[in-house]
Amino acid sequence: MNALLAETSATFPHYRIIMIMDSAGWHTTHKLMLPENISILPLPPYSPELNPTEHIWDYIREQKEFNNYTFDSLDAVDEQLGIALCDLQNEKITISNMCNFDWLISATC
Question: What pTM value is reported for the model?
Answer without folding.
Answer: 0.51
